[in-house]
Amino acid sequence: MLNLLVRDQPEVGAQLVELGAELRRAQEQLSGAALRELAAQRQRLVAALVRSARRLAAEAGHPVSAATAFELEQTLHAALADPDVAAEVGSGRLARPASRTGFEAQAPAPAPAPAKPAAPVRRLRAVRDDEVAEDPAVVRERRKRELERDRLREELEAAEQARAEQDEALAEAEERLAEAERRRAAAEETAEDLRTRLAEAEDAERAAAREERDAQRIRDGTARRRDAATRKATDMAARLADLGD
Q: Closest by alpha carbon to 64, among 74, 72, 76, 54?
């Protein structure tokens, strides 16, 4: 992202080197008020550079997160403190972010009066003449909101992932339920068929029992009549024998 900015605005590297040198001289020469003024310029320059880099990245289709913007800000502060880092930034071939080091807007300890008057603080231009420097408090508040948006986006992504997983689990559960319902319906159909066949078999059993009883009565009656006829025939034969020839 910073390399993209430097390619778009080649003067960025020179501005970082220039303001860094001014700040280092201020540590030795300037009063507390002058040092604070240069430190404020540093903050305005860094904020303007971050805004420009984020705008360029967004135009290129690569929106920048708050965490990446913070890394960029730290790298710019490191470039202001270290001429080697500033040169690497100005080359447009920065390999990795650098850590913030160096200057703080603190008044220097009292020192003997300089032998010659210190040079007046020169105001440096921050990237674009048409950009308005922002209040650091506004920058901090915006960064806070950006971090909160990033956090909420992450939570939303996690919630959507969890919802997708639950949607998949619900679809699987519904499929299992549908299969169980199909099996239950098939079992009920089989049971109903078996109940029908059992009822028919029981009806057939009762009919056969009735036929058996009827046949038993007929046979018993026939057997009695045969026995009676046998006794009668035997009796008639005996009486005939008694009468002789």
A: 54
